[in-house]
Every structure is written in structure tokens, then in C-alpha cells.
Write a structure and sequence with these properties.
The structure holds two protein chains of two kinds. Chain A is an all-beta fold. Chain A is built from no helices and eleven strands. In chain A, strands 2, 4, 5, 6, 9, 10 and 11 form a seven-stranded mixed beta sheet that branches. A four-stranded antiparallel beta sheet of chain A has the order 1-3-8-7, with no helix packed on it. By secondary structure, chain B is mainly β. In chain B, the strands form two sheets. Chain B has a five-stranded mixed beta sheet, with no helix packed on it. Chain B has a four-stranded antiparallel beta sheet with strand order 2-7-6-5, with no helix packed on it. The model of chain B has no long low-confidence stretch (mean pLDDT 92). In chain B, strand 6 and strand 7 form a beta hairpin. The chains are: A mainly beta, B mainly beta.
Chain lengths: 114, 106
């Protein structure tokens, strides 16, 4: 199993550009989530999904969109990038949310917005 | 949602036990307590989780206070590979907080 994969590893955007961060898992996990981690900080939950077709907001959802059309994929879209979105983004998956089992994290995408 | 409080940093000598504390005084009755750790430039890695009873696995032990307002992650013999940031996580929104940076001294 590849586990949780994320692409790209690094990305530089200009303010106002849009992009999609890709996340995929091959463990047939129901629950997937996106976090951001700013320098010296812990992770903050952006959006999560408890299954295909179902998404919900986390702690810091503004400026981000998600969709979940398949069990395997959970892309994160930035519609109009801002410098405040410069961060490292982690995708995670888990067998289920209630209760929340062990989450498996991807290697992260380091995003810089200039 | 429950939030957690941890010391910013701790040190331990190699091969000695380490006790990492966490306060989660607003935890609800159904929230699990999770611990993750993060090595530099990597994603977090699951360590252990529990609800009410103490838990053991191959990596660590988790001691949960009777009132569930605090917990302690126990690494029985710290190794250099255990140097990481340790996060105590709980609540529906899975708040990570800033964690405890563990330094292991050879």
C-alpha cells in the first residue's frame, strides 16, 4: 500500500492564482481530512469528509473548497490564493470518524504564496 | 470543542523514561484522547489513543486521569529516534495545539 499520497510536494503561487492540492489514499478509509501547519504551530483542521459525497468544515475553512467524489481522493482547492495561505498542508485518512481511529498522514505540500 | 495544554518543551536522557503531560479540562465524555508525534519535515505519526482506561502499545503507554481532565504519555525508554514534537489531541475538531518538543540527550 502507498498509504496517503500528496502532490505536489512544493508549490509557489502568486496572489490571486488558483490551484488544487491532490490527496489520495489506497486503504479504503472512510474519513479524510486536510490540515494546515504554520511555522512553529500545531496543525489546524481545514475541511474533512466522512465518506464520498459528504464534506464538512473544520476550524479554518475560509478560502478553501473541497469535494469527495470517490473514496480514494480528497482534493483541496484554493480559489484565489493569498499570502496568509502560505503554509504546509497535510492530508490524513482514517478508517472512521466515530470514534476517530488512527489517522495516517501524507508527507505534506509546502505552499508559498507571494 | 475540547482544547489541550502542553508544556512547550521537555528534555530527557537517553534510555530513561519520559512522562509527557497534557491538560484537557473541557473534554466531553465521549471524546477520545489521542497522541501523535511529528519528526522534522514529516507528517504527524500516530502514537496511541484511549478513552478512560490506561492503554499500552509497542510505542508507549497512556495514563488517563480518573476525571479525564488530564493524561500522560509515557515513553518507557527514550531513544534518540524519539526526539520529536508530541501532540495531545482531542475533540471533534481534532485540535492539535502547539505540542511538546522533546529533546533526548545522549
Amino acid at each position: 500500500n502507498a498509504g496517503v499520497t500528496q502532490t505536489p510536494k512544493f508549490q509557489v503561487l502568486k496572489t490571486g492564482q488558483s490551484m488544487t492540492l491532490q490527496c489520495a489514499q489506497d486503504m479504503n478509509h472512510e474519513y479524510m481530512s486536510w490540515y494546515r501547519q504554520d511555522p512553529g504551530m500545531g496543525l489546524r483542521l481545514i475541511h474533512y469528509s466522512v465518506g464520498a459525497g459528504i464534506t464538512d468544515q473544520g476550524e479554518v475553512p475560509n478560502g478553501y473548497n473541497v469535494s469527495r467524489s470517490t473514496t480514494e481522493d480528497f482534493p483541496l482547492r484554493l480559489l484565489s490564493a493569498a499570502p496568509s495561505q502560505t503554509s504546509v498542508y497535510f492530508c490524513a485518512s482514517s478508517y472512521s470518524k466515530q470514534p476517530l481511529y488512527e489517522q495516517y498522514f501524507g508527507p505534506g505540500t509546502r505552499l508559498t504564496v507571494t | 470543542d475540547a482544547k489541550t495544554t502542553q508544556p512547550n518543551s521537555m528534555e530527557s536522557n537517553e534510555e530513561e523514561p519520559v512522562h509527557l503531560p497534557c491538560n484537557h479540562s473541557t473534554i466531553s465524555g465521549t471524546d477520545y484522547i489521542h497522541w501523535y508525534r511529528q519528526l522534522p519535515s514529516q507528517g504527524p505519526e500516530y502514537v496511541i489513543h484511549g478513552l478512560t482506561s490506561n492503554v499500552n502499545n509497542r510505542m508507549a503507554s497512556l495514563a488517563i486521569a480518573e476525571d479525564r481532565k488530564s493524561s500522560t504519555l509515557i515513553l518507557h525508554r527514550a531513544t534518540l529516534r524519539d526526539a520529536a514534537v508530541y501532540y495531545c489531541v482531542t475533540g471533534n475538531q481534532f485540535y492539535f495545539g502547539t505540542g511538546t518538543s522533546l529533546t533526548v540527550i545522549p
